[in-house]
Amino acid sequence: MIVPKTEIFRTAMILCAVCVCAESTTVSDFLKDVSKGIDTASKVRTFTAETAVPVIEDKTITFIFWLPDEGYTPKRVTLCVRTDKHIKKTVLKKAGKSSVFWAKVKKNTNSRIDYWYETEADGQTTRELDPLNRVIVYAKPLVSTIKRVSDGLGSLELIPLLPSESPLIYRRDITIYLPPEYAANPEKRYPVLYMQDGQQLWDSSACAYGGWKMDKVANELIAAGEIEPIIIVGINNSSRRDDELMGWSAYHRADSVKSNAKADPERILQTAVDFESYVIGTVKPLIDCMYRTKPEAEFTGTGGSSSGAMEALYLGFRNSSTFSKIAALSGGEAYYDDLISDYLPTDRSLKIYLDCGDQNLDAQLLTASVRMRDALVATGYTEGADLQWNLVEGAGHNEAAWAARVPEFLKFLHGIPKGN
User: Fold this and answer.
1) Domain extents for the chain?
2) Which CATH number fits domain 19-149: 3.30.70.100, 2.40.50.100, 2.40.37.10, 2.60.40.10?
3) Is 242 helix (H, G, I), strand (E, B) or coil?
4) The predicted structure's pLDDT at residue 415
5) What is the pTM of this model?
6) What's the distance, CA 236 to chain centroid?
7) Rounded-to-integer distance, Cα 388 and Cα 351, Å
8) Contact, 247 vs 271, CB < 8 A?
9) Whole-Å CA distances, 47 to 14, 68, 309, 382
10) Which of 193, 310, 311, 354 has its CA 20 to 30 A from that of 337?
11) What is the mean pLDDT of residues 285-303?
C-alpha cells in the first residue's frame, strides 16, 4: 500500500524535550477541557506542543496516555515504572468522555525514570511505549524514559515505524541521538549525521555485540571538546536491506551467488531508488521539521558499514546538494567499481572517510577500497584534507571492529580544530 506524504507527516507530532512545568493548573485545565470528549486529537497535540509530557512538577509527575488511533480506546491503561528492585504499577484514570488516560504520582527521585504502559482491550494486554514522549532507553524491549537535563548526557528519541510512499520500502524505526546540551539551548541548531543500520548504533546489549556505542562516544567526544555537538539519526534496516542499500549496483542485480538472482532486476533497482527517496524525501525532511537541525548540505552527512558503506557513498556521490560528509567503513568488491564508473563525483564538495580491515571478509574488500581511494585522489581529493583512508590492521568485518572506529570518523567529519 502506498502511504500518502500527508499521512507520513501526520504520524509524527512535534514534541518538546521533557522539562519542568511551572504552572500546575496547566495540566488540570487540559484534563478538564479534554474530558468533554470533543476534538480530543487537536487538544492533545496543542497541549503536547507547548508542554512536555510526562509533566514534572515540584513533588509530582503527571503521566498522560493517548493513542492517535481515534478508532481504538483501551478499556484499561496501566503505568509500569521500573525501579531497582521491582516494577511499580499504577492504573490510570480515564479523562471523562475522551480517550485520554492520566495518573499523578509522587516524584521520589531526581534520577532517570524508565517506564512503559500496558493497555487492555478485548481480552488482550499490549505493552506500549509512551506515544507522547519520544525519549527512550535502547533496550530489549525499548522503554520510555524521563531524562534529567542535568545528567550531562545525550538522549535517544524514537520515531516508530515511519512509513514510506513506496510499497517496496517497509516502514521502520528511526532513532535519534540528541547531544547533551540540546534541551538547554532552544535557539541553537546542529549538524546531522544519517547512519544506516540504526539498530546497531547504540550503547546497549539490545544491539549485536553491544553496538557501536555512538551515543556514548559522542557524549565523551563532545564533553572533551574534540567534536562539535551533533545529531545522529539511525535508520533501521529491513528484510530487504541488500536491495535497498545496493540495488543501484549492476553487480548486485546480476550476481548469481545472491538469492536475488532469480528476482526481477528492475524491481531491485527500483527498491534502491525508492530507498534513496525515502532517506532524502521522507526521513530528512521529517528530522529537519521535528528537530533544530542545520539542514544545509554543508552540515549534513551520511554513513554506514559493509552494505551501509556502499549506500553512504551512493547517497553522497549522487546528492551533493544534500550531503557533504561521508563515512564508509568496510565497503568494497565490485560495488565500489560500480560507484567509481557510474557515480564518482568530480566537484570535490565532499569530505570522505574510508576504511577497511584486513581480516576475514574485509581482506576480500580491501583491494576495492584501495581502488576507491585512488579514484578519489585522481579526481583531486587530498588525503589528510578532504579524504581520509585507513587500513585497520587486524580488524575484521564485524560490529566490534566498526565500533572501535567511531571516534576516528566522528573526529574527521565533525572535529573541532585544536586551538578553537
Assistant:
1) 19-149, 155-414
2) 2.60.40.10
3) helix
4) 98
5) 0.91
6) 8
7) 8
8) yes
9) 11, 14, 41, 52
10) 193
11) 98
Residue 234: how many CA atoms within 13 Å on its side-chain side? 25
What are the phi and psi torsion angles at 139 (to 5°)?
-140, 175
Which of 30-44, 139-153, 299-313, 404-418 is predicted with the least confidence, judged by mean pLDDT? 139-153
Amino acid code (one letter) for 400? A
Where helices occur in 240-396 by DSSP H, the ranges are: 241-246, 250-254, 265-277, 284-290, 307-318, 333-343, 360-378
Judging by DSSP bridges, how do beta strands 124-128 and 93-94 pair with one another? unpaired
Average pLDDT, the chain: 91
| Residue 2 to residue 183: CA distance in whole angstroms | 36
The Cα 141–Cα 54 span in angstroms is: 20
Closest CA to 164 of 326, 387, 3, 384: 3
Can you name the residues that pair with 146 across neighbouring β-strands?
A: 113
Q: Quote the Cα angle for 113-218-275, to 5°.
A: 95
**Whether the Cβ atoms of residue 238 and residue 170 lie closer than 8 Å to each other:** yes
- Angle at which helix 40-50 crosses helix 25-34, to 10 degrees, equals 170
Neighbours of 69 (CB within 10 A): 10
Q: How far apart are CA 189 and CA 230, in angstroms?
A: 9
- Please give the C-alpha separations between residue 315 and each of 175, 190, 245, 347, 388, in angstroms, as whole numbers: 19, 21, 10, 15, 18
Q: What is the DSSP string of 73-87?
A: --SEEEEEEE-SS-E
The H or E element containing residue 327 is strand 325-329
Q: Which of 70, 88, 69 is nearest to 79 (CA)?
A: 88
Q: Is the pLDDT of residue 215 over 50?
A: yes
CB of 106 closer than 8 Å to CB of 63: no
User: Is the distance from CB of 183 to CB of 176 less than 8 angstroms?
Assistant: no
Cα 147 to the center of its chain, rounded Å: 18
Q: Which residue has the cell 574527521?
A: 412
Q: Rounded CA gap, 6 and 333, in Å?
A: 40
How far apart CA 72 and CA 31 sit, in angstroms, is 19
Say how many C-beta atoms besides its own lie within 10 A of residue 368's C-beta.
Answer: 19
Residue 318 neighbours by CB under 8 Å, 6+ apart? 276, 343
Nearest Cα to 57, choosing from 129, 97, 106, 98? Answer: 106
**CATH node for 155-414:** 3.40.50.1820
Let me know: does 68 contact 75? Beta carbons within 8 Å: no
